[in-house]
Amino acid sequence: MTSRILHWADGAEFAGTSDRWADVTNPATGKVSGRLALADPDDAAQVIASAVQAQEAWAETSLARRTQVLFAFRELLNARRPELAQIITAEHGKVHSDSLGEIARGLEVVEFACGISHLLKGGHTEAASTGVDVHSKRVPLGVVGVISPFNFPAMVPMWFFPIAIAAGNSVVLKPSEKDPSASLWIAKLWKEAGLPDGVFNVLQGDKVAVDALLTSPDVASISFVGSTPIAEYVYRTASEHGKRVQALGGAKNHMLVLPDADLDLAADAAVSAGYGSAGERCMAISVLVAVDSIADDLVTRISERTRTLLIGDGAAGSEREADMGPLVTRAHRDRIAGLIGSGESAGAKLVIDGRSVSARGDEDGFWLGPTLFDHVSSEMEIYREEIFGPVLCVVRVPSYEAGVELINANAYGNGTAIFTNDGGAARRFEKDVEVGMIGVNVPVPVPVAYYSFGGWKRSLFGDTHAHGTEGVHFFTRGKVVTTRWIDPANRPAGGLDLGFP
Ligand code: NAD
């Protein structure tokens, strides 16, 4: 059964007038499950107009009322997590528990945004000069655009819109065309929570929709998450159009294992972080950097664990949930299978080949099993490319120094981890490594909502990370007011003075 997946504007579904449509598939069956409206520029203009119309009144709504809506949204989302998880699994393919996990991390940001009254407090200085007080405030930007990738259809939009809305902005979300239904479910939830129509809008589509947001004079800022080439394009284009931009890009996350680490825990972590969500996480571990003396032992432990994984349809209801679901699309699966071939030809040792997977599920699903390469070197394509799939590459290094050098030479700087029981080495790593998010014996160090999420180098364009206080800063503009009230009992002398005050 296929459904029509539309835009959302003025608090209702909106079909638009474009005649461009795209298929949405269930990756576990390979079957088309929906037909997605792809916006043309006129549709985009209408959705943006809905956001413009609603924004001023929303910004003038009291903080108490705005916070009530945020709390209501939090309650509804919390109560209905399984419904949303089902939608995510059906279009993305990740297993049900993993879909619940991304909702939990998104919910954290909603909870953070519930404290917006505190977060928006300005400063006040009495008598900065005689009879002169100064105060600061932060005001909303207006209409903000959020453009999200396929791999977290609920969590990544939630990195941005709860804070943006709480701060008094209206939002146009452009979700990934691969798994767009979560966005509409969320739009309906906002309505139920009492958010006025037009404050949260969804624009479905591809590059045409993105370009409309990047160039519209009515859109004040762009928050983008996706691959590095598109992040760079978005950053450049939106900046040229005078917008504030944060554009988070791709990743190649390394996990360095030192000889004194607990190798069982390190192997557990490598398998969980490498193959969770079929490796389609921007914080997945894709490169395991093993110091020579323990490399053989570690690869053995990783391969033993990898062979126990169950690959299959991740929908809820099975007796034993699969560990890993399918890849998001057939094209993505085939691309990764091609990269596995390239690693083999380049001379890396293919310890486990995911191309010959036996999966529990429909034979037309986009299956690819976990793949393990050993003896990978930094000039190989499988090392240089962001594979974004269940492929773990082991690079062997002679020392800690060589491991850090490898990580720092990489073009990306999103996340990294060190596994060691040596506090001094971990402390040194924290200082030496040129990466935005670092784990010490934690393989996927996604910051909690009250800190900010973002990488370095080609993993982020712009200087502001997502959520936490940086998020509040991004979605507001500062004003500083200098005030002199005339007190008749202490009236200033007056008179002309052309000197700099
Ligand atoms: P993508 O770059 O293909 O798409 C992201 C968004 O950009 C989508 O909404 C898509 O419709 C739009 N888009 C695609 N091509 C475009 C074009 N030519 N012009 C304008 N817009 C375009 O990314 P994806 O495949 O959906 O997601 C996976 C990527 O996202 C990976 O590279 C992953 O590392 C990255 N990612 C990064 C983070 C992070 O925090 N740094 C988080 C999640 C995902």
Give the N-to-C terminal Cα separation.
72 Å
Helix content: 25-40%
Strand content: 15-25%
Structural class: alpha/beta
Shape: globular
Cofactors, ions and other ligands in the entry? nicotinamide-adenine-dinucleotide
| Poorly predicted runs of 5 or more residues | none
User: Strand tally, please?
Assistant: 23
Task: Give the strand line-up of the largest sheet.
Answer: 15-16-17-14-13-19-20
Which short descriptors sum up this protein?
Ald_DH_CS_CYS; 7-stranded mixed beta sheet; 23 strands; methylmalonate-semialdehyde dehydrogenase (CoA acylating); alpha/beta; methylmalonate-semialdehyde dehydrogenase (acylating, NAD) activity; EC 1.2.1.27; 501 residues; 39% helix; binds nicotinamide-adenine-dinucleotide; NAD; single chain
Overview of the structural elements:
By secondary structure, the protein is of the alpha/beta class. The chain has 16 helices and 23 strands. The strands form 6 sheets. Strands 15-16-17-14-13-19-20 form a 7-stranded mixed sheet, with helices on both faces. It has a 6-stranded mixed sheet with strand order 10-9-8-11-12-22, with helices on both faces. Strand 4 (21-26) and strand 5 form a beta hairpin. Helix 10 (263-275) crosses helix 11 (292-306). The termini are far apart. The model has no long low-confidence stretch (mean pLDDT 97). The site of nicotinamide-adenine-dinucleotide (NAD) has 27 residues, from helix 8. Nicotinamide-adenine-dinucleotide binds next to helix 8.
